[in-house]
Write a structure and sequence with these properties.
Four copies of one chain form a homotetramer.
Chain A: E1 5-10, H1 17-28, E2 32-38, H2 43-52, H3 64-73, E3 82-85, H4 89-101, E4 105-109, H5 116-129, E5 133-136, H6 143-153, E6 160-168, H7 173-176, H8 179-184, H9 190-193, H10 198-214, E7 218-226, E8 237-244, E9 249-255, E10 264-271, E11 274-279, E12 285-290, E13 295-299, H11 322-339, H12 350-368, E14 374-375
Helix pairs in contact in A: 1-11, 4-5, 5-12, 10-12
Chain lengths: 379, 379, 379, 379
C-alpha cells in the first residue's frame, strides 16, 4: 500500500544522537518506512530498541551479514531498498561494500571510509552497479546553504575570488591535556579513526561545504596541523591554505581545541560583486553583502530555491535546523532511489565522500612533509 | 507489538504546515503511531494524502462523526487513544466535545474554542471524564522556555517584579489597507474567528507564556486595541497593561501590523536578583542577567532541565527549534495518556486553553468599555 | 582670531561623566572654545579643575550669578555667548532664567526643569529674547537616529501606523528593596527630583525620541506606574499607552527595575510600507524592514543624511557613539547661535524641553487618577 | 598655567579622518594642548585650517624642517614636546628621524616606515635619546582589548594554545578589477606604499594585536598572498600561518577583496581553560568562554582594568569606540612623556612599529619564496 522507500538502519540505537537525527529526517518528508536493521551488538538491547521505535522483531538482525542474507530472501517488494550506515567510521567500508555488492542503495555517515583507497573502491562499486550512494555531509542540507549555492551559481556575488571556512569546536580540550585520557579516546586512536582526528571529523565538512557552495574544485592544500603533545598521534587542530583549479585561493581552519566553542562552523564566500556569510549556530540567516549596498539579511522562512522545491516544511518565522538539513538530504536520496536520477546539489554522493578522504590524506601528507603544497587528484 | 499511543488526526492534510509540524512532533520521541483520521473534506484527497503519509485506507474517514463511530467498533487495543484537532478554530469545540464524550483524549490546536463559554464547557467534560486534553501552545515546549520556567521557579532571578511580552508580526499589513481584501480574510471575519484577530491569534500565546514562565496568575487587563479602519471589526494590534494576583505589573504587546516582522515573539522577565530574556526567532539562546555580574548566554545544547529529562534530541551545538518544541508537548501528553498523571509544566492543558479564551474576551471588553481594567475570573 | 563660539559651563567638574561628554562634544567639531564657568562649589576644586582642563583662572567663578555679572563687564567679543547647564535638575530653572534674562544662549541638560510651569516660563523668555536654547536629549543626535528621522520623513516606511519605545535599566534594583537606601536616594526624593523618577529621567527620552523620529505629536497618555513599595513616593517603572493627534497608537515602556539591564533604549516604528528598529546599545546599526523584501542593515559609516551634512567625523567601519551624538547637538546649536536660524531636526530646542515636562506631569496624573487618558496640551 | 603637553601635528588637515581622530583623542583626557604644526602643503589652506581649529597662525609652519627650526628657538617651556605624524607612510621615516634628532617625542601613525631597515634606524635613535615614541596601532587602545590582555595575563583562559586574527575589508574590490584604476591607486604603487598593500596596511594590525593580547612573540610566518592580476605588484589579500616562540600555532587572515566587508577585524584567543573573542565592529563587547560554563558577555561599561585606571570616560551603558581607543593611546603616551616611564600595555611603542615592519617583509618573503617558513628576527 505505502509507496515509501523501505529503509534499513545499521547502528544508531539507544540514545545515539545520530540515530535520532537519521530516523526523524527519514520520516520528515514521508518518503521512507524504517523496516528493520541492526541497532546494537547486544541482542536484547537490539530487539528492545527496535520495538521501542515501532519496528517488528522479525526484521531485527544480529549483524549486517545476516541482515543482507535474510532480506534477500524476501520478495522484492518487501525487501529493503536502502540502508543507512551509522556505525563507527572503521566499519563503514566493509558494510557499504557488502550492501552495494548485494544491490542495496546506501546512505552513509561521513567520513565515508578510513582511507582514500577504500573510498575509491566503493566508488567503483557504485559506478558499476548504478545504485544510489549518499554521504551525509548534513550541513549541505540546510535550506540557507542550498540558497547560498543557488545564489552563487546565479552570479549574485559575481566570480568567486576568496573563500574561507572555519570549523571550531572545543570538545577535545578537557581530554587532550592528560596523557591518560588522550590515550583512551577512540578518536585519537589511529586504528579506530584513520589518519586524522580533527581534519577527518570536521575539516572534511569544511572542504565539502566550500566545494558544494562554489562548485569549484579545490586541488591544492598546504597544511599546518597541531598535535599539542608528542605522544598524541592525531591532529586536533589545523590551518590549511587551499587553491582551486581556477586559481581561487582560500583557507580552511578547523580546531577541536578552540576551548568553549560548541560547533562554530562558518563559511564566507567573496566574489567580484558581493559576499555571502553563514554560521551553523544561527543557520536560518544568510548575510548577503553587495558592493556599495546595504547588507541584506536573508531568512530561511522567506527563501525559495529549486533545491528545496517539493515541500516547504517550516511555518514562516520559525527556525530551521539540523533535522531539516538531514531531511533534505534524505529527500534528495529518495528522489534518486525512486527515479535513479538527481541534481548533484540535492545530496552529497559517493564522489563527495571519495574527495573527502582524498582531502584528509593530502592534508596530513602536506603537514608531515613540512607544510608543503600537495595536489589532490581530481579523478 | 508496538507500545506506542494510537493517534488519530483531524485536519492538517496536503501541504498544511501545522499538519507537518504535528506529525513530525508525534513521531519524534517514538511515542505515537498515527493510525488514521480525516485529512480533507474531499474524499479522493483524503485517501491519497493518507496513503502518502503511510496510513492504511481502512482508517481514513469521511468526517469526525464517522471516525468516532467506526473507531468505537474496534477492539480497545486497536482503537485510537488520542486525537489531534488541527482544523480551523470554529470547529475545535464541536470536535473536542464529541471526542471527549466518547472517551478519546484530545490534543487540540489553540485557540481552544471561539468563546469562553465553550471553553468552560469542554473543561467540565475533561474534569468529569479524567481524559487528557492538551492545547498546543507550542512555544512553551521550547527547551529554553522550559529551562527559563525552571530557573524562575528555582529562584535564579529572585521574586519576579516586572514582566513584558511582545508578539509582533506584519502579515496583515498587505491585507488591511484595502477594504476589499480585509473583507475577504477569514481571520477578520467575526463569524469565523470569534471576537478577536490579533489577541486571539498571538496575544493569547503571550498571555499563556507569561503565566507558564512565572507561574503567576494574571488577573487584570487594561487594553487599547487597534482596528485601523472603521469597517474593520477585528483587532489587528493591541497593547495590554496587566496585573497579577500578587501585584506584579507588566505588559503584553501584540501586533499584526508591525510591517516587516515575521514572528517576533519575545519575553522578558525581571526579578529582584536578575532578569531573563528569550526571543523566538533565536530560540536556542537564553540571556541571563544577574545583578552586578556579566550577562550569561545559555545555549540549549548545554541545558539540563527536569522538564526535558527523558531524552535529549539534539546533538551539541546544533540549533533547536519548533519541532522540538511541539515534540516536547506531545511527549508530555504521551506520558499523561499512558499514566494519567503529569507535571503541569510538561504540556499546556485544558485549563490553559480556558484561561486563554477568558483572556481574549476580557481584553476585548476592556477596550470596548473605554480602556478600563477588567478582571479575569480565575476559577 | 578664533571664530569659535565662546562657551561657559556650569557644573560637570571632577570625574562627572556628563561634564566629560559635553566638553568633548563641544570640541569635536571645532566650533566652541570653553572659556570659563563654575565647576564646583568648593573654590579650590573649582580652580584646580578649570586649570586641569586648560581654562584660565580669571574666568573661573564662584557661582553663576557672579559669572553673569563678570562676563557682562567684558567686551562683547570676549564675553561668553552660550552657557551649558550640567547641574542637578532642580537648579536648571533658576540658572537658565537668569542666563536668558542676561542675553546668553543656553545648552541645558534634560529634564529642562522640575515642573511644567517653570518650563513654560523659560519658553516665553526664549520666545521674547530670540536666544538659542538647546536641551540635550542626547540620543536624538545619534547619526542613525537622524538617518531614521529622515527616512521616515521621506516616506521610506510609508504612513506610520504603530510606534513602540522601550527604555529599560536596572540600576535602581539594588536600592529599591531596602527602605533605608530608598529613602537616601536623591532621585527618589520628590523635593530634589520633581514628581517622577523613572518617567522623568528616561521615559521622557522615549517620548522625545518618538516625536523626533516620526514628527507626530503625542497628545494622549494612559499610564500605569509602579512604585513597588508604599513608602516610595516616586515611580521606578511604568507602561504608558499613547495616542498621537493623527490617531496613531503606540506605547512607551520605561523601567529602572529591569534588573541586569544597563541602558536598553530601543525604538520601533512601523508604517504601511515597512519598519525601522534601532537599539542604543548597538547604535551604529539600523534595521530597515520592507514589506516583502529582505531586512536591510544600515550602518552609520555608510549613511548620508542632510542632518549630518557638514562633516563626517568617523572613519568608515568604525563604531559611532555617544560623543558623536552629543557633538551633533552641539554642532546644531552652534549653527543656530552663529546664524540665529536652524532646522528643527538639528538639535532639541526649548519646545522639546517644555513638552517633556508636560509629558511627565500628564503621565503621573494619568496614573494617579486610576489609569485614565490624559490629554497633553500642545501649545 | 596649563600643565598640558604641548603637541604639534604634521598632516591631518582638511576633512582628513585621521586628523580628526588624533585631535579629538589628544583632547579627550585633557592632557595635550595642540599648539601648532603643518596641516597642508598649500600655505593658504594650512593657515586657514589651523585657524579653524583654533591654532594661532604664529605656529603654523610651511614644512616640518621649518617647524623644527622655529620651535627650537622658543623657550623650552613653550616649545612643542611631542609631535604627531599623520602624513602618508613614505614620509614617516624622514620626519620621525629629524624630530628625534632634535629632541621631540613622536606619536606616529602606522606603519612606522616603509622598510624594516628604516624602522630599525628609528629605534636606535629612540634608544639613544630616551625620547618617547608611540605608534598608533589604534585598536590596542580599545577598553575591551585592554581588558582582554589583562584577563589573558591573569590566566583567565589558561595557557594560550591557539590564536586566530581576521582583518577583512572589501574596499579595494571596485578598484582592483580594472587595470586602469589599479595603476592609479597609491596603495598599489610600491614606490609610495612599500612592499605590501594588504599586509602592510591591515595584516600588521592583526600581528600587533595578537602579540599585544597574548604577550607571546610570533617568530615564524608562512604566507600565501594574493595579487589577483599579474600586473598588480602589491598583495591585496593573504593568509599567514604563524608560530610563536613557545610553539603556539595560529593564523592571520587579511583581505581587501572581501567584498562587502567594511572593517571586519576580529580576534579569537583560545587557552587551556577558555577562550576570548572580540570584534572591532562591535567593540564594547567581549565574549568569554570557559570550559563547561555559560558564555559570558563582558561589556565595556562594566569593566575595570589597570590599563584604564585614570579615568573612565563613558557613562554606563553607552557605546565605547575608536575615540576612546585612540585617546587611551594618547593618554599612555602623555604619561610616558611626563614621567619618562610607562607600562608596555599602555601604548604601542617603537619596538612594536619595528616588529610590524619586520613582519611585513617576512610575509612577503615567505610568499615570494614559494610559501615557506620565514623566521622573524626578535631582537
Amino acid at each position: 500500500m505505502s509507496k515509501k522507500i523501505r529503509l534499513g538502519i545499521l547502528g544508531g540505537g539507544g540514545n545515539s544522537l545520530v540515530g535520532i537525527l537519521h530516523r526523524i529526517a527519514a520520516k520528515m518528508h514521508d518518503k521512507y518506512d524504517i523496516v528493520g536493521g541492526v541497532f546494537s551488538r547486544d541482542w536484547d538491547s537490539n530487539i528492545e530498541f527496535a520495538n521501542e521505535i515501532g519496528i517488528s522483531s522479525r526484521r531485527v538482525y544480529a549483524d549486517y551479514e545476516i541482515m543482507i542474507k535474510e532480506e534477500l530472501k524476501l520478495p522484492q517488494d518487501q525487501r529493503m531498498q536502502a540502508v543507512s550506515i551509522l556505525t563507527p567510521n572503521f566499519l563503514h567500508y566493509s558494510m557499504a561494500k557488502r550492501l552495494l555488492e548485494n544491490n542495496f542503495s546506501v546512505i552513509c555517515e561521513k567520513p565515508l571510509t578510513t582511507t582514500y583507497e577504500e573510498a575509491k573502491e566503493l566508488r567503483s562499486l557504485v559506478d558499476k552497479s548504478g545504485l544510489i550512494f549518499a554521504v551525509t555531509y548534513t550541513y549541505t542540507g540546510y535550506p540557507m546553504i542550498r540558497k547560498m549555492r543557488e545564489m552563487i551559481s546565479q552570479d549574485a556575488i559575481g566570480e568567486v575570488q576568496k573563500v574561507d571556512a572555519q570549523y571550531y569546536q572545543g570538545w577535545i580540550n578537557p581530554i587532550i591535556h592528560s596523557s591518560e585520557t588522550r590515550m583512551d579516546t577512540w578518536r585519537l586512536d589511529p586504528k579506530k579513526s584513520g589518519v586524522s582526528c580533527c581534519i577527518g571529523d570536521i575539516g572534511t565538512h569544511a572542504f565539502d561545504m566550500l566545494e558544494y557552495l562554489t562548485q569549484l574544485t579545490i586541488d591544492k592544500v598546504l597544511a599546518d596541523l597541531n598535535y599539542l603533545y608528542d605522544d598524541n598521534k592525531m591532529d586536533i587542530d589545523g590551518s590549511i591554505l587551499i587553491r582551486c583549479t581556477n586559481g581561487v585561493k582560500g583557507i580552511i581552519r578547523a580546531s577541536q581545541i578552540a576551548t568553549g566553542e560548541n560547533n562554530n562552523f562558518a563559511v564566507m564566500i567573496y566574489g567580484k560583486k558581493g559576499g555571502l556569510k553563514w554560521e551553523q549556530e544561527n543557520p536560518r540567516v544568510l548575510y548577503f553583502m553587495q558592493e556599495g549596498k546595504e547588507v541584506q539579511i536573508l531568512k530561511s522562512e522567506n527563501i525559495d530555491t529549486d533545491l528545496l522545491t517539493e515541500d516547504a516544511k517550516l511555518p514562516p518565522g520559525h527556525p530551521d535546523e539540523i533535522f531539516d538539513a538531514m531531511a533534505n538530504i534524505y529527500k534528495g536520496a529518495a528522489k534518486a532511489i525512486n527515479h535513479q536520477e538527481y541534481d548533484p546539489g540535492e545530496f552529497p554522493a559517493i564522489i563527495d565522500g571519495v574527495r573527502g578522504m582524498n582531502f584528509i590524506e593530502s592534508v596530513v601528507e602536506s603537514h608531515k612533509k613540512g607544510n608543503v603544497w600537495i595536489t589532490i587528484d581530481n579523478k
